[in-house]
């Protein structure tokens, strides 16, 4: 059932050089907001079209995973037509992650709030939100899921999950959270569209999870890579320092765990 509940127009939130008009279509239930975005692109939807679903029956995560989508959490897809070259588009995961962190920051002590490269938001080490980038017919779909009131049940191999209501006492108003998120996304998209990730590296790094810590990075193919996370390059790739191969630039992968610091020498801290 794809029943349209309401259409919100928030064009004043967006700079004309990034997105000329923003419209938010709120759907009661659908397969996924990404499916709605793809259909809209087929029909000629413009940059700035946003779909929000109250329930997704087949929400999508990275690498074909399912994003559990019960009622009460936030699920949106934003259609964006960047002016930057396509080689820069993967950096939009970090742009959206930073927008999420800035939205959470007034609600949660920032000491507990972290961004896990490349696309997750953590609170007290548990996943509270995630970003999925898709490119369809030359257009970017930024998918965002936020656990506002319900943390999904996850298996032992998945990153533990949490919800915003586990960490705050005040009530959560979904529309307010969404509008704040879109406002921050607008701001960071404008900076990225003009100058790339360079101006966003410092604020992103301030939220970075496992910075200068030893991590294990899983790949779709091959063995996991062990190393120390040294931040991100201007193109958004991970700087991973390894004992065997020195500093690597990692463009894709998942941090599956952090290891105790003592397992790896840190030349920066040597006297």
Question: How would you describe this structure to a colleague?
Answer:
The N and C termini lie far apart (64 Å). 19% of the residues lie in helices and 31% in strands. The chain has an eight-stranded mixed sheet, with helices on both faces. Strand 9 and strand 10 form a beta hairpin. The chain has helices spanning 33-42, 92-104, 174-195, 201-206, and strands at residues 4-9, 23-30, 49-56, 74-80, 113-116, 120-123, 126-136, 139-146, 214-218, 225-232, 238-242, 246-250, 254-259. The protein folds into two domains: 4-206, 2-Layer Sandwich (BirA Bifunctional Protein, domain 2), CATH 3.30.930.10; 214-269. By secondary structure, the protein is an alpha+beta fold. The longest helix is centred in the C-terminal third of the chain and has 22 residues, at 174-195. It is globular, with a radius of gyration of 18 Å. The protein is built from four helices and 13 strands.
Question: What is the fold's blueprint, element by element?
Answer:
Blueprint: E1 4-9, E2 23-30, H1 33-42, E3 49-56, E4 74-80, H2 92-104, E5 113-116, E6 120-123, E7 126-136, E8 139-146, H3 174-195, H4 201-206, E9 214-218, E10 225-232, E11 238-242, E12 246-250, E13 254-259
Parallel strand pairs: 2-3
Antiparallel strand pairs: 1-2, 3-4, 4-8, 5-6, 6-7, 7-8, 9-10, 9-13, 10-11, 11-12
Helix pairs in contact: 2-3
């Amino acid at each position: 059932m794809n029943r349209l509940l309401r259409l919100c127009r928030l064009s004043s939130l967006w700079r004309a050089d990034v997105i000329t008009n923003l419209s938010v279509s709120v759907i009661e239930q659908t397969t996924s907001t990404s499916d709605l975005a793809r259909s809209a692109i087929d029909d000629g939807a413009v940059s700035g079209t946003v779909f929000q679903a109250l329930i997704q029956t087949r929400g999508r995560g990275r690498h074909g995973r399912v994003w559990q989508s019960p009622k009460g959490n936030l699920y949106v897809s934003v259609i964006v037509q960047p002016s930057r070259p396509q080689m820069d588009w993967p950096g939009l995961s970090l742009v959206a992650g930073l927008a999420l962190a800035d939205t959470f920051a007034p609600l949660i002590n920032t000491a507990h709030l972290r961004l896990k490269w490349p696309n997750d938001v953590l609170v007290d080490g548990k996943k509270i939100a995630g970003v999925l980038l898709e490119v369809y017919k030359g257009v970017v779909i930024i998918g965002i899921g936020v656990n506002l009131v319900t943390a999904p049940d996850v298996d032992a191999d998945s990153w533990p999950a949490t919800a915003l209501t586990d960490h705050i006492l005040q009530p959560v108003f979904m529309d307010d959270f969404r509008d704040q998120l879109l406002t921050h996304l607008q701001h960071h998209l404008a900076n990225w569209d003009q100058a790339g990730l360079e101006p966003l590296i410092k604020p992103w790094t301030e939220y970075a999870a496992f910075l200068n810590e030893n991590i294990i990075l899983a790949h779709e193919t091959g063995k996991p890579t062990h190393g120390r996370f040294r931040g991100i390059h201007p193109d958004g790739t991970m700087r991973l320092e390894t004992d065997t191969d020195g500093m690597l630039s990692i463009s894709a992968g998942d941090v599956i765990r952090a290891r105790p610091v003592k397992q790896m020498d840190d030349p920066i801290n040597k006297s």
